[in-house]
UniProtKB/TrEMBL annotation:
Transmembrane segments: none annotated. Residues 136-529 form the AMP-dependent synthetase/ligase domain. Its EC number is 6.2.1.1. Residues 65-127 form the Acetyl-coenzyme A synthetase N-terminal domain. It comes from Sphagnum jensenii. This is acetate--CoA ligase. Keywords: ATP-binding, Ligase, Nucleotide-binding.
Length: 701
């Protein structure tokens, strides 16, 4: 059995780097994986915020932005020190000469190392909660919780939230969790999930949230990597009409972890009776504890662990070009300052806003813009357990009206899916509280942008199309609503302190109107500091491909007005409904199937998901194609990664198109998947060019 991840001839000259990560270093291939964005061909229309909107906007002109931006890049230390001084620091950072950061992003100058506010001591939980309560905001609502079913809801003030966080943090301490220890969290969107994150942050424990849609195997892989002594979970959850028994998945994962020689001491389980009752939950005495039986007995006050700005705050695993997920590591001070500031400006946050982000805390968006960014600003936040189209396609707008949501942040895939149900489910709700809309996760195609703007926002609410990544911690390229005209499909301009560079295949920055690889040329406070346990991979993946730059993995075009248009990943990462999935991960899941000999996975344009997963599968000799086998291959991916990574299409492949040196030509596979059969290009370098016709013949088999 061998995985088909060998790279394509188009970038064979680069070879594999030491981690096996692959890059498409051929500009002609740019955007091939870029899915739905037809932006480049669209006539660029501009959308200008109303005078009324601009009259209260934090940034109301491009000139105002330009002046602040200039300072942020010419004097980053002064710029960020001014902002950071609005937070509480137990000890101020050391800065005799006014320098608050030190960074080497150039692999030619030694180890890549980034530090912001080093020597400063603070705590992000304290700044998110205690600071507001002490300022008299204790009775302000922190979380409005909306359950899966309409009518099931709850709310928590800042004071109540702080008490709940303190109780859990006291429990964790009592369990022996100390500063620097990892805590794994596998929970659905109950308020207990952000409470768990904040409780860890309070005591200096490193939270590692695993999206509760990952399989037991994926969870165990992450547990084995960060080795927590305690896992927090929930009996189960209802998502739409489905019930998912989360504790069972954790049981399987812990079993597997044990077989690898690692024992997790405690599994603290929140009983979510509306989904799965206690009596229906399998239990391992000694290891499993019901959250409700212990946590409420702890004091509602808890000492804060003061953290160096560069102490680790959390790990979050994300997909790369190789099979092994990367544990992106964020630290405390820079992340705190950066998420708070980006939240404030990109959403034009005002104290009376009600903010709703539909993301799950299992992804970076839920960390930076459902939990930390908004709480650091003292915002009232809607946390939603369910899905956008349950019980019907009007649910989001019902929730908007119920809580008078003024800032709404979601993903293009949700917009496209709701768009399919037409305008009526939107129009039957008022939505007049809405002021700012946000988009994240993938390029938003101009037609979805238009619908979001015209229908959802009644042509009144600017859209912040925020480009960023798990690795960047916070927004990098984003409109500041009211600051400048929007162009549907463009993330527009860089945030303060962000210096994008478009780089060509030779690693040279190119200027003006151009297309190329999107890199960043100077450090920003929110950037990740390393990959858990693998600093070498951090360097080779992000800093070695283009020397002197941080490489994002995305392709990008800059237009004549300096606006940025993201065109999608240029590496072997697929963006499915805003979720990053490495083709190599899916391939390795497929080849683990006993009847699969080889597999190659590519992305293809998908109307709702942005990109779908298209798998070419070669079976072992003598095995017959069948629908049943197809289903069991898909199932292999569900159990190895999770249901969200299930391939949309399995294409039988008697062989894969390989060069004479054995490299799979993914370019050809992408064209076959996209049905662009007249654009296959030169196939004469294939070891066996006849394989292409065989594959085409099997397309609908
Ligand atoms: C990748 C990062 C950042 C939170 C969610 C995803 C794509 C993200 C946009 C956008 C175009 C976008 C990029 C990026 N992406 N936002 N507004 N426009 N592309 O985080 O899982 O780390 O994925 O998502 O390809 O590299 P992630």
């Amino acid at each position: 059995h061998s995985s088909g991840s060998g790279g394509s001839a188009a970038f064979a000259h680069l070879g594999k780097n030491s981690t096996g990560d692959r890059f498409v270093l051929n500009a002609a291939d740019m955007g091939v994986t870029g899915a739905v964005v037809d932006a480049a061909e669209e006539v660029e229309d501009r959308v200008v915020a109303s005078d009324e909107f601009r009259s209260t906007a934090l940034i109301s002109s491009r000139e105002q932005y330009a002046a602040m931006y200039r300072r942020s890049v010419e004097d980053p230390d002064g710029f960020w020190a001014d902002i950071a001084s609005h937070f509480y620091w137990k000890t101020k950072w050391q800065s005799e000469d006014g320098k608050i950061h030190s960074a080497n992003m150039d692999v030619r100058n030694g180890q890549v190392a980034i530090e912001w506010f080093k020597g400063g001591e603070t705590n992000i939980c304290y700044n998110s909660l205690d600071r507001h309560v002490e300022a008299g905001l204790g009775d302000k609502i922190a979380f409005f919780w909306e359950g899966n079913d309409p009518g099931v809801d709850d709310k928590l003030t800042y004071k109540e939230l702080l008490e709940r966080v303190c109780q859990l943090s006291n429990y964790l301490r009592d369990q022996g969790v100390k500063k620097g220890d990892a805590v794994a969290i596998y929970m659905p969107m109950l308020v207990e999930l952000p409470i768990a994150m904040l409780a860890c942050a309070r005591i200096g424990a490193v939270h590692s949230v695993v999206f509760a849609g990952f399989s037991a195997e994926a969870l165990s892989q992450r547990i084995l990597d960060c080795r927590p002594n305690i896992v927090l979970t929930t009996s189960g959850v209802r998502r739409g009409s489905k019930v998912i028994k989360l504790k069972e998945i954790v049981d399987d994962a812990l079993q597997h972890v044990l077989s690898e020689g690692f024992a997790v001491g405690t599994c603290l389980t929140y009983a979510n009776d509306s989904a799965v009752k206690r009596e229906d939950t399998a239990w391992q005495k000694g290891r499993d504890i019901w959250w409700q039986d212990v946590v409420p007995n702890y004091p509602k006050e808890s000492a804060v662990e003061w953290m160096d700005a560069e102490d680790t705050l959390f790990l979050l695993y994300t997909s790369g070009s190789t099979g092994k997920p990367k544990g992106v590591l964020h630290t405390t001070g820079g992340y705190m300052v950066y998420t708070a500031t980006t939240f404030k400006y990109a959403f034009d946050y005002h104290d009376d806003d009600i903010y709703w982000c539909t993301a799950d805390c299992g992804w970076i968006t839920g960390h930076s813009y459902l939990t930390y960014g908004p709480l650091l600003n003292g915002a009232s936040i809607v946390v939603f357990e369910g899905v956008p189209n349950y019980p019907d396609a009007g649910r989001c707008w019902e929730i908007v009206d119920k809580y008078k949501v003024s800032i709404f942040y979601t993903a293009p895939t949700a917009i496209r899916s709701l768009m399919q149900s037409g305008n009526e489910p939107v129009k039957r709700h008022s939505r007049k509280s809405l002021r700012v809309l946000g988009s994240v996760g993938e390029p938003i195609n101009p037609s979805a942008w238009r619908w979001y703007y015209d229908v959802v926002g009644d042509a009144r609410c600017p859209i912040s199309d925020t480009w960023w990544q798990t690795e960047t911690g916070g927004f990098m390229i984003t409109p500041l609503p009211g600051g400048w005209p929007l162009k549907p499909g463009s993330a527009t301009l860089p945030f303060f302190g962000v210096q994008p560079a478009i780089v060509n295949e030779n690693g040279l920055e190119i200027s003006g109107e151009c297309s190329g690889y999107l890199c960043i040329k100077a450090p920003w406070p929110g950037m990740m500091r390393t990959l858990q346990g693998d600093h070498a991979r951090y360097e080779t993946t992000y800093f070695a491909p283009f020397k002197g730059f941080y490489f994002s993995g995305d392709g990008c075009r800059r237009d004549k007005d300096g606006y940025y248009w993201l065109t999608g990943r240029v590496d072997d990462v697929i963006n499915v409904s805003g979720h990053r999935i490495g083709t190599a991960e899916v391939e390795s899941a497929l080849v683990s199937h006993p009847q699969c000999a080889e597999a190659a996975v590519v992305g293809f344009d998908h109307e709702i998901k942005g990109q779908g997963i298209y798998a070419f599968v070669t079976l072992l000799e003598g095995v017959e194609y069948s629908q049943q086998l197809r289903a069991s291959l898909v199932n292999a991916v569900r159990t190895h990664i999770g249901p969200f990574a299930a391939p949309d299409k399995i294409h039988w492949a008697p062989g894969l198109p390989k060069t004479r040196s054995g490299k799979i030509m993914r370019r050809i596979l992408r064209k076959i998947a996209a049905k662009q059969l007249d654009e296959l290009g030169d196939i004469s370098t294939l070891a066996d060019p006849s394989i292409v016709d065989q594959l085409i013949g099997l397309r609908d088999k």
